[in-house]
Amino acid sequence: MAARTSLFKAALARPGGPALGTWVKLPAMESVELMALAGFDFVVIDLEHSALSIESAAQQIGVALLAGVSPIVRIPALDGGVVQRVLDAGAEGIMLPHVDTVAQARAAAAAVRFPPRGTRGVGSTSRAGAWGALPREEYLRFGQEEVVLIAQIESAAAARSAGEIAAVEGVDALLIGAADLSTSEGRTETDPEIVDLIAAAVRDTVAAGVPIGNAGGATAAAVRASAEAGYRFTLMSNDASLLGAAAAAAVSAGRTVHDEEPRKDTP
């Protein structure tokens, strides 16, 4: 069986614009399939801000891998048991919200890696181990070398420590959570102080040699702005909002059509 490589890391390494992803919030396997067919590089299955269960996430991970799109799972908080179950379900990475300190980053990195680098348990009869068909050595190698940990920067303290958090061994990428960061300071995302704080966090992360991403809009202008700001990957909206926007656009277009003649009543 050929060695598996990370689709997420491959997307980051590809020349050109930033890697493109989207959040998945709907408990439907078809959501992931549709995002893959659309051409996204990765999806972030969101267990923090949705009603998705681990079982739903496991099914979506399987669809993602078969469809050729990288499955990352955002967990609501650091829980070693949840990390282990999600990774053994085949996720290519974990996204952890509210990583504010180096100590928190180290704890997260330990939960994601096998000993001696961390504390993750061995479960090679899961999907991550091809249900036992994958050699144990390859299962362990993928977990140590290919799985990614993405730490979310969502406070002023985290932003000021972004370079140090990025430098923690086992942290593979950062994601700026501008909405939480600005809200925690009682400001808006466009406030000059917040803009400067985020720009400094991006600069320090890039200087540490670690990719950083953001959550942006579903437009070329939004992606261009992300690339110009130094982001290597960006999340374009989410499955629910994309569906809603497409539905609203369809109805809006339909409402522009009017009968040329009054309709005749039928008996």
From TrEMBL:
Q: Which InterPro entries match?
A: Aldolase/citrate-lyase_domain, HpcH-HpaI_aldolase, Pyrv/PenolPyrv_kinase-like_dom, Pyrv_kinase-like_dom_sf
The answer on whether this UniProt entry bears the keyword Cell division reads no
Query: What Gene Ontology molecular-function terms does this entry list?
Result: aldehyde-lyase activity; metal ion binding
Residue intervals of the HpcH/HpaI aldolase/citrate lyase domain: 21-209
GO CC annotation terms, alphabetical: cytoplasm
Q: Has UniProt tagged this entry with the keyword Disulfide bond?
A: no
SUPFAM superfamilies, A to Z? Phosphoenolpyruvate/pyruvate domain
Q: Which domain of life, per UniProt? A: Bacteria
Recorded hits in Pfam families, A to Z, give:
HpcH_HpaI (PF03328)
Which keywords label this protein?
A: Lyase, Metal-binding
The entry sums up its family as follows: Belongs to the HpcH/HpaI aldolase family.
What's the protein called, per UniProt? Aldolase/citrate lyase family protein
What species does this protein belong to? Herbiconiux oxytropis
Its ancestry begins with: Bacteria, Bacillati, Actinomycetota, Actinomycetes, Micrococcales
